[in-house]
C-alpha cells in the first residue's frame, strides 16, 4: 500500500473514498491525488529543515513542473513551501495559487526577456543562471527596469547520478549548468555586472536518483567552489542542491525523505558550511506517489502473441512509459479471485508507443477500472491533446471529501483558439 491510497476489503481507496466512486462521479481517465500524501511528503522534508535550536536551516522549493495544478500548489503554499519555476507560465500559476514571490527560484536554461521582466517585477528570490549570455541579458533587463537581480549560477558538478540518461543532468556533455572549470570566472564576470547581485550557487544532478552518494559527491564539489569563491572575495549566501530524489515505482529503494535531507544537511554542517541557507528543489518526491491515474478497460483484445487490455487512458495522459519506458504499477480497482492473464495495457492512440504497461498479470474484464500508480509527478503536466483527446480530469481527495481540481477538457475547448481561413 501507498501513503494516502490503500486496499480495503479488496477495493482500492484514496484516503476514505473508494476509487470506484470517483470513477462513477467524475468519469475516467481521471488523476486522483491524496492531500494527506502531499502533506506528509512535504512535512518529511520540513522535519529535516530545522536546527535543534529551532532555527531554520533549509527551505523546500517545490519544482512545480512535476505537477502544477493550482490546488496542489496551494496545498504546498499553505504549508509554507517555496517554489522552483521554469517559465513565466509557472510564475503566473504560483502567484495565482497563493505562493510568495520572495520564495521563488527561477531555473531553466533559456529564459526569455519577457520572462525575466515578469520575474523581476514579481520580485523572485533568485534567478538560477546557466551561461554568460543569460547573465548579460538579465543584467541588461534589470538595468532597464532600474532593479537589481538576485542571482545564482548553476554549476555542473560532473557526477554520475546513476539514473536514466534522459533525466541525468549533471554530467559533462549535458546542456545544463556551467562547466566546473569555468565557474569561478563566470562568477567574477557576474560580480562585475552592475544590476546583478550574487546570492547563491546551485546544482541539479538528475532525477529519480535512489542513492545518496552522488549527492554527497556533488556537494563536495560545490563546497570546494564556495571556498575558492570566498578566497576570491565572492560570498555565497545560499546553496541550492536541486531536486532529483527518487520514489518507489516498483522495486526502487530510495532513501526516506527525512533521512536524505538530514544526511545532506549534516554533511554541509560537518564540512563547516552550516552558516549557508540551503534550498531543496524536489518535484517527484513530493507528488509522485501522491497521485494515480484512474482508467476504465474498454476492451480485452486477445492477440496472436499477447493479449491487449485497451483502456481509456493513453500516452497523451501519461507519457512516461512511451517516453522513458518508465514502469508504473497497474492494479485493478476491485481485486478479484479470478485467474490472471498476461497482457499489455495500452491506450486507444494510433501509435505502437501508446502503452502504459507491458506483460502485466491482471484479472480484468471490459468495464473494470484500473489504477495506474505513482502517477502524481510528470503525469498531468506532460499530458497533451494528441489525437484531439481532451486532457483528464483531476481530483484531490481530502479525508472523505472529493474536490474536483480540474475539469475534464471539453472537446470544443480543444479547438476554440483555431480559425478557418477567410472565405
Ligand atoms: N530542479 C531542476 C533544475 C530540475 O531540472 C528538476 C527536474 C527538478 C529540480 C526536480 O527534479 P525531481 O525532484 O522531480 O527529480 N519528466 C521526467 C523528469 C524530468 C525532470 C526534469 N527536471 C520524468 O517523468 O521522469
- Average of pLDDT: 96
CATH architecture of the largest domain: Alpha-Beta Barrel
Strand-residue fraction? 25-35%
The CATH class designation of the largest domain is: Alpha Beta
List keywords for this structure.
single chain, 423 residues, alpha/beta, Lyase, Ornithine Decarboxylase, Chain A, domain 1, TIM Barrel, globular, binds ligand LLP
What would you say about this model in short?
This protein is of the alpha/beta class.
Written overview of the protein:
This protein is α/β, with parallel strands linked by helices and 423 residues long. It folds into two domains: 5-33 and 288-414, Lyase, Ornithine Decarboxylase, Chain A, domain 1; 36-284, TIM Barrel. It is built from twelve helices and 21 strands. The model has no long low-confidence stretch (mean pLDDT 96). The chain binds ligand LLP. Ligand LLP is lined by residues 63, 66, 84, 107, 167, 204, 207-208, 242-245, 281-285, 320, 324, 377-378.
